[in-house]
TrEMBL record:
Composition skew (Pro residues), residue ranges: 41-55
Basic residues composition bias: residue spans: 8-17
Gene source species: Spirodela intermedia
Highest taxon listed in the record's lineage: Eukaryota
Domain HTH La-type RNA-binding per the UniProt entry, residue ranges: 57-146
PROSITE patterns attached to this UniProt entry: HTH_LA
Xref: SMART domains: LA
CDD domains registered for this protein in UniProt: LAM (cd07323)
Keywords of the record: RNA-binding
Protein name (Swiss-Prot/TrEMBL): HTH La-type RNA-binding domain-containing protein
Region annotation (Disordered) ranges: 1-58
Protein backbone atom coordinates (compact mmCIF):
# COMPACT_ATOMS: atom_id res chain seq x y z
CA UNK A 1 0.00 0.00 0.00
CA UNK A 2 1.67 3.09 -1.23
CA UNK A 3 1.53 6.16 0.97
CA UNK A 4 0.57 4.28 4.15
CA UNK A 5 3.31 4.28 6.71
CA UNK A 6 1.49 2.76 9.58
CA UNK A 7 0.16 4.58 12.58
CA UNK A 8 3.27 6.68 13.11
CA UNK A 9 3.22 8.11 9.59
CA UNK A 10 -0.43 9.08 9.98
CA UNK A 11 0.29 10.69 13.30
CA UNK A 12 3.21 12.70 11.96
CA UNK A 13 1.27 14.05 8.99
CA UNK A 14 -1.69 15.17 11.10
CA UNK A 15 0.06 16.22 14.28
CA UNK A 16 -1.10 19.83 13.73
CA UNK A 17 -4.75 18.81 14.11
CA UNK A 18 -6.03 18.73 17.65
CA UNK A 19 -9.30 17.50 19.04
CA UNK A 20 -11.50 19.97 20.93
CA UNK A 21 -11.96 23.73 20.64
CA UNK A 22 -9.34 25.79 18.85
CA UNK A 23 -6.77 27.44 21.09
CA UNK A 24 -7.53 31.01 22.13
CA UNK A 25 -5.34 33.70 20.64
CA UNK A 26 -2.56 35.05 22.82
CA UNK A 27 -3.42 38.08 24.96
CA UNK A 28 -0.91 40.90 24.81
CA UNK A 29 -2.51 43.03 27.56
CA UNK A 30 -3.01 46.77 27.58
CA UNK A 31 -4.66 47.10 24.12
CA UNK A 32 -8.31 48.09 24.33
CA UNK A 33 -8.99 48.76 20.66
CA UNK A 34 -8.69 51.75 18.39
CA UNK A 35 -10.04 55.15 19.46
CA UNK A 36 -13.73 55.46 18.63
CA UNK A 37 -14.27 51.72 18.24
CA UNK A 38 -16.85 50.07 20.41
CA UNK A 39 -16.80 46.42 21.34
CA UNK A 40 -20.25 46.24 22.95
CA UNK A 41 -23.44 44.71 21.61
CA UNK A 42 -24.38 45.58 18.00
CA UNK A 43 -25.97 48.98 17.55
CA UNK A 44 -29.27 49.43 15.62
CA UNK A 45 -29.09 50.68 12.05
CA UNK A 46 -29.94 54.36 11.49
CA UNK A 47 -33.40 54.94 9.99
CA UNK A 48 -33.73 54.70 6.22
CA UNK A 49 -33.88 58.02 4.36
CA UNK A 50 -37.36 59.25 3.59
CA UNK A 51 -38.62 58.85 0.00
CA UNK A 52 -38.22 61.80 -2.33
CA UNK A 53 -41.03 64.34 -2.30
CA UNK A 54 -43.72 63.93 -4.92
CA UNK A 55 -43.10 67.47 -6.14
CA UNK A 56 -39.48 68.41 -6.88
CA UNK A 57 -37.83 71.38 -5.24
CA UNK A 58 -38.83 73.63 -8.12
CA UNK A 59 -41.74 74.94 -6.07
CA UNK A 60 -45.39 74.13 -6.41
CA UNK A 61 -46.21 77.23 -8.49
CA UNK A 62 -43.60 76.44 -11.12
CA UNK A 63 -44.51 72.74 -11.21
CA UNK A 64 -48.19 73.70 -11.57
CA UNK A 65 -47.39 75.92 -14.54
CA UNK A 66 -45.17 73.27 -16.16
CA UNK A 67 -47.84 70.60 -15.68
CA UNK A 68 -50.58 72.77 -17.19
CA UNK A 69 -48.37 73.69 -20.16
CA UNK A 70 -47.42 70.05 -20.82
CA UNK A 71 -50.95 68.65 -20.51
CA UNK A 72 -52.42 71.48 -22.60
CA UNK A 73 -49.92 70.45 -25.27
CA UNK A 74 -51.12 66.83 -25.04
CA UNK A 75 -54.70 68.01 -25.69
CA UNK A 76 -53.74 70.59 -28.34
CA UNK A 77 -55.06 70.35 -31.91
CA UNK A 78 -51.54 69.74 -33.25
CA UNK A 79 -50.81 66.86 -30.86
CA UNK A 80 -54.24 65.19 -31.08
CA UNK A 81 -53.94 65.19 -34.89
CA UNK A 82 -50.95 62.81 -34.55
CA UNK A 83 -51.23 61.15 -31.12
CA UNK A 84 -53.18 57.95 -31.64
CA UNK A 85 -52.14 56.60 -28.23
CA UNK A 86 -53.82 59.45 -26.36
CA UNK A 87 -56.94 59.17 -28.50
CA UNK A 88 -57.10 55.42 -27.74
CA UNK A 89 -57.16 56.27 -24.02
CA UNK A 90 -60.29 58.43 -24.40
CA UNK A 91 -63.64 57.02 -23.35
CA UNK A 92 -66.83 57.56 -25.43
CA UNK A 93 -67.09 61.15 -24.14
CA UNK A 94 -63.43 62.05 -24.68
CA UNK A 95 -62.36 61.72 -21.02
CA UNK A 96 -58.88 60.45 -20.10
CA UNK A 97 -58.04 59.33 -16.55
CA UNK A 98 -55.61 61.46 -14.59
CA UNK A 99 -53.70 58.26 -13.80
CA UNK A 100 -53.11 57.72 -17.52
CA UNK A 101 -51.76 61.25 -17.93
CA UNK A 102 -49.71 60.90 -14.71
CA UNK A 103 -47.99 57.85 -16.23
CA UNK A 104 -46.64 59.85 -19.20
CA UNK A 105 -42.86 60.32 -18.78
CA UNK A 106 -42.81 64.13 -18.92
CA UNK A 107 -45.55 64.40 -16.30
CA UNK A 108 -43.90 61.70 -14.17
CA UNK A 109 -40.69 63.74 -14.08
CA UNK A 110 -42.61 66.69 -12.64
CA UNK A 111 -44.77 64.92 -10.04
CA UNK A 112 -46.66 61.77 -9.09
CA UNK A 113 -49.33 63.75 -7.19
CA UNK A 114 -52.61 63.34 -9.11
CA UNK A 115 -54.33 65.98 -6.96
CA UNK A 116 -51.69 68.52 -8.01
CA UNK A 117 -52.13 67.51 -11.65
CA UNK A 118 -55.91 68.02 -11.48
CA UNK A 119 -55.55 71.29 -9.55
CA UNK A 120 -53.04 72.63 -12.09
CA UNK A 121 -55.61 72.26 -14.88
CA UNK A 122 -58.47 74.16 -13.18
CA UNK A 123 -57.67 77.51 -14.88
CA UNK A 124 -56.89 75.89 -18.26
CA UNK A 125 -58.72 77.24 -21.31
CA UNK A 126 -57.82 74.06 -23.27
CA UNK A 127 -58.47 71.19 -20.84
CA UNK A 128 -61.50 70.60 -18.62
CA UNK A 129 -61.38 68.45 -15.50
CA UNK A 130 -64.13 66.40 -13.87
CA UNK A 131 -64.08 63.50 -11.36
CA UNK A 132 -60.41 62.56 -11.83
CA UNK A 133 -60.62 62.75 -15.63
CA UNK A 134 -59.76 65.35 -18.24
CA UNK A 135 -60.57 66.08 -21.88
CA UNK A 136 -60.13 68.75 -24.52
CA UNK A 137 -62.52 71.60 -23.84
CA UNK A 138 -65.19 72.20 -26.48
CA UNK A 139 -64.05 70.11 -29.46
CA UNK A 140 -63.52 66.72 -27.75
CA UNK A 141 -65.97 64.91 -30.11
CA UNK A 142 -63.73 65.67 -33.08
CA UNK A 143 -60.95 63.50 -31.59
CA UNK A 144 -62.86 60.33 -30.70
CA UNK A 145 -61.77 57.15 -32.44
CA UNK A 146 -64.70 55.06 -33.64
CA UNK A 147 -64.46 51.56 -32.20
Amino acid sequence: MAGFHGRQGFHRRHAHRQWGPPPSPPHYGGFSGYPGWSYGPPQPMPPAPSPPPSTPRLGTEIVTLLLRTQIEYYFSEDNLARNVHLKMQMDEEGWVSVHTIASFPRVKRLTNDVVLILRSLQPSPTVEVEDGKMRRRGTWKKWLIRR
